Structure prediction request, 55 residues.
Amino acid sequence: MDRKAGVLRINAIRWEPGAPADVPLDDAVARLAEFLGARRVLWGRVRRTPPRPRR
Prediction:
């Protein structure tokens, strides 16, 4: 969190094996940003949905 710039940066997300694909990640991050007082959220090169299991 860059408080001076009011920016919450999301650099990485670690998904648990078998995590459901419908996790409301954007909503959770938006609520966190609001709680922290961030005016913007910058997403790095992160996967916003869990990877599909390998077969």
